[in-house]
Amino acid sequence: VETTQDLLQTKAGILGARRALEALGSDLPLLVSLAFETTGTMLLGSEIGAALTALEPLGVDLIGLNCSTGPAEMS
Length: 75
Prior knowledge:
The chain is elongated and about 40 Å long. The two termini are 22 Å apart. The mean pLDDT is 89. It has one domain. It has a two-stranded parallel sheet with strand order 1-2. The protein is of the alpha+beta class.
């Protein structure tokens, strides 16, 4: 699930990907890439801690950051 800017969009993408993987009988890892503004929030205001807390129960294998702000701002 690539470059999501909203937590609800991210959750919908994860659930859709899970359903597709289950329908195919596939056990591939599920990766998510979140995009953050220079303010440290997603486009619709979710902070990174809130995003991680909301996504943790969904069993995502890897959560990364999209380079929407650049490497200096991401660190």
